[in-house]
Amino acid sequence: MSLVVVGSMAFDAIETPFGKSDKIIGGAGTYIAWCASNYTPVKQISVVGGDFPQAELDILTDRGVDLEGVQIKKDEKTFFWSGRYHMDMNTRDTLDTQLNVLGSFEPVVPDSYQDCEFLMLGNLAPSVQRSVIEQLKTRPKLIVMDTMNFWMEIAMDDLKQTLAMVDLLMVNDSEARELSGEYSLVKAAAKIMQMGPKYLIIKKGEHGALLFHGSKVFFAPALPLEEVFDPTGAGDTFAGGFIGHIAKTKDISFENMKTAIIVGSAMASFCVEKFGTQRLREINQSDIDARLDEFVQLVNFDIQLGN
Known about the structure:
Blueprint: E1 2-6, E2 10-16, E3 19-20, E4 24-26, H1 28-36, E5 42-49, H2 54-62, E6 65-73, E7 80-85, E8 92-98, E9 116-121, H3 126-135, E10 142-146, H4 149-154, H5 156-163, E11 168-172, H6 173-180, H7 185-193, E12 199-203, E13 209-213, E14 216-220, H8 234-249, H9 254-271, H10 278-282, H11 285-299
Parallel strand pairs: 1-5, 1-9, 2-7, 5-6, 9-10, 10-11, 11-12
Antiparallel strand pairs: 2-3, 2-4, 7-8, 12-13, 13-14
């Protein structure tokens, strides 16, 4: 049984108040695969151009990422995004977007991916996400979807159609408000869960993340970091840690999702420490265990209630 990840593999060029990168490897699918492969083998669905380095594909293969579902369009260019972050590192301006191969991407699910038990739909056009669900002969145990405000503005009907088919949605707080029309995140969550997803994760950047299911709510903090260099892949790395833990444990209970959110938060805290996927390439299991322990210490307390 397996984890299938759908998402972009791309080039990014990033400017932050603390530095800038040249053209580096990025894309939601790339970050998710780099992160989730710490926990479980990954089957990747994406598209790249002939300019995407073979060495990058080889490194992923070595990490246990199956690339049979990655289309390589030799005569075309890979998706490219360039952005500049403001001082708060939460707001950013897009400087350039070149869809390239992503503009005509039609995912094909290989036969060897039909054992998909867990499906992670990285941020892509809702119609592309939906086509992957529709190609699977057996419904996965858990379908997780990420999306963004861009699709809410240009493809809301499409988005709602796909939302009705998934189990868990991941969005940030401003996206949750835009999607629901509610300012209160509790009200927003209730409204979004009526659209289809039984679970909702609302990411709040440096302020942690919320998990909703029915009337249950769980809050996970973000680790206070001295330095944040590049938040670009943080949300996708969070998603990779979350779905990686779920796929490894094969447990989709609310209680295990709490743990998965902490794992996602820990992995995201690594990602922001350097540009692109650089930090994710450096860490090992002992680094991850130590970081998870920091999270446990962060929220561990005993309280005595008087009579």
